[in-house]
Specification:
Length: 179
């Protein structure tokens, strides 16, 4: 495949929509987990699950576009270790952004069926084992989510380093409407 010279508008839109949703999902998760039982806690769980599944659907679309179209090569002039770090961290971000919602979905299906997306669409996975299995999966979900957040922060810091210190086009080419 000949690599494109720029990210497609769909790739940019999906990148930023997914990043914004993750940035909203994490504080909602921390809040819901620490609230006393009640209507607000239940509401936040439902919003968390529905928007988490939305992220998974958007990531699936993103991976399809990425495999059909590829991505532009990294900006020239980077030392070899930075090229390796960029490729490895992008791969890890893709893996985690799939794994985190899949684990949340599987854990919730085991412990707390039915899983309804936005109170309507039934999406329970066939995961048996009940509460003990569900709780174990959700613990891994939480650890994977914190790993994702840490890596995304390092990734964002690297993007800002490119923009403010190296002053290359790395951040600009992921922004809407630019080259
Ligand atoms: C990218 C998407 C997602 C992110 C970033 C995310 C993040 C998190 C985080 C950080 C926690 C830990 C909260 C805490 O215990 O302090 C959490 C908990 C939880 N998540 Fe997600 N989540 C995502 C998707 C999902 C999905 C798709 C589901 C289910 C369909 C789900 C169900 C849950 C549940 C049930 C808990 C509570 C676990 C407990 O009470 O111990 N999450 N999530
Ligand atoms: C949950 C949050 C985020 C995730 C999961 C994520 C994930 C990714 C992935 C997987 C790529 C590689 C794209 C590809 O090659 O197909 C990428 C590229 C990029 N991301 Fe993020 N990202 C997040 C947040 C951010 C933030 C907050 C910034 C900026 C402050 C940012 C800036 C960039 C830039 C500039 C690129 C292009 C890098 C290049 O082409 O060399 N990302 N992101």
């Amino acid at each position: 495949m000949i690599p494109p010279t720029a990210y497609a508008p769909s790739q940019k839109a999906l990148h930023w929509i997914i990043a914004a949703l993750v940035a909203g999902l994490v504080p909602v998760a921390l809040t819901m987990a620490n609230l006393p039982d009640g209507a607000l806690k239940n509401q936040l769980y439902e919003w968390h699950k529905s928007f988490g599944l939305t992220v998974l659907a958007l990531v699936a679309a993103r991976i399809v576009v990425r495999s059909l179209r590829g991505a532009p090569p990294l900006v020239p002039g980077l030392p070899a270790w930075q090229r390796r770090a960029a490729h490895a961290s992008h791969l890890a971000l893709y893996a985690l952004i799939v794994l985190v919602p899949v684990l949340g979905w599987a854990g919730t299906s085991a412990c707390c069926a039915p899983v309804l997306m936005f109170w309507t669409l039934p999406l329970t996975l066939p995961v048996s084992g009940g509460m003990p299995v569900g709780e174990a999966i959700l613990l891994v979900h939480k650890l994977a989510a914190f790993t994702l957040v840490t890596l995304a922060l390092v990734h964002a810091a690297a993007a800002l380093h490119h923009h403010l210190i190296r002053r290359d086009g790395t951040l600009r080419r992921m922004l809407p409407g630019r080259g």
